[in-house]
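forwarding from the other thread:

> can someone predict this with zinc ion?

sure thing
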Amino acid sequence: MVKLLECRLTIDECEALRLADYEGFSHEDAGEKMGVSRATFGRIIEKARKTVADALINGKAIRIEGGNYQFAEGRRSFKCGACMHNWVEPCGNARPETCPECGDQTLGRMMPGDNE
Ligand SMILES: [Zn+2]
């Protein structure tokens, strides 16, 4: 068996690719959805594209880092800033607008490893 070389993509980089390249959002809109500035989004997507290009050109496997289990199950975790309720959404779903528990709009993405 040949062991594939791996390169790593973070969950956020994966999400950036999904929003900009798969869904077709502008960097500004995509950044807003991820809760980051357009400039920050630009840096995330640039790194993500470079990683994917590296994988394609050099035949590497891509590992989604920092919470593989979350991505493997196709889910993203969200947390309400008002009532602290947290829940998961399937990866393909749009980012929820309001908390399903209290209806508040102060939602945050839970980062991998954030097990509060
Ligand atoms: Zn809530």
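Residues 6-65 form a domain with the Arc Repressor Mutant, subunit A fold (CATH 1.10.10). thats all i got for now
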